[in-house]
């Protein structure tokens, strides 16, 4: 691969299936995840297309809620397909989109946004029932495999993916350029949405919370413990963690129990949507053979891949972890729509494990560095 390689994404096909089907298409995802590249690629497949950059002042002026439907139509002219990139930066953008939707039904609008807290809040009420929301993740394993001669070649990249993650541009770069880009993503682009969010008063505190979560990835986390360690209120820690979730940096994996009352009081685990971002936050980009966290990295990678699949394909499978009081544990409990469950352990270098005595499953299968591609096949 090289820097000009276009990697086909699963979301590309979902957009194609739903374009000109009577819905505004909203694409959410972190910065630098490939949304703009995707839109530009789509633009080349249609005629009468307009591409609007929500960062540009002229777009902010001409597509704002201060304009009526005639004025907006005059601005977009004869365009039948309108892409709005970084739509959250346009004041009242949702109302303008609603005007177009209600007045000119033949026009298809596709809008993207990096900031979930801005764009979702902006779009929810005006576009209720009028939109299709899609989520763009870091590259999925199966997407990266399309760039290889054979799917099985993926195992040559295992350690590389665990260290550098799956952001498209990072995957296409190498050497010092790759390191510089990943650290730029970690310290600039991804934190930009968080640190400019109106509720954030202490940027250093957010970064400290991120470092604690990154260092404890794959472990249960306690809001109270983080609160005590950083000498801040429990509510502040909870609020900031929710913002990190909304910014597509972390996600929670709940504990499994057949009893809802028990499940409600159990601690969650925190994982990162991307291994590279996790490693960049901690400044740990060393080779795997000298790392002590390879097990945690492998576990984060496998579980994040499963969660990407769930979020993109909206399947009916739910994921949990299981833990007993005596610290017996299963990394992944997979529950389907008929409540049938399976158990999996993520072990970088292990072939077999014993099923815990009180486990909710009869057998625990091992996902390791030699078979994970089959486990993650979709």
Overview of this structure, please?
The protein has 378 residues and is α/β, with parallel strands linked by helices. The chain has two domains: 10-135, Rossmann fold (3-Layer(aba) Sandwich); 141-375, no CATH class. 43% of the residues lie in helices and 15% in strands. The protein has 17 helices and eleven strands. The protein has helices at residues 10-18, 35-43, 57-62, 69-76, 93-103, 116-124, 141-145, 158-164, 168-172, 175-195, 203-215, 223-230, 234-246, 260-264, 275-282, 294-313, 372-375; strands at 24-28, 49-53, 81-85, 108-113, 131-135, 250-253, 269-272, 318-323, 329-335, 341-346, 364-367. It has a five-stranded parallel beta sheet with strand order 2-3-4-1-5. It has a four-stranded mixed beta sheet with strand order 8-9-10-11, with helices on one face. Strands 6-7 form a two-stranded antiparallel ribbon. The radius of gyration is 22 Å and the shape is globular. The mean pLDDT is 88.
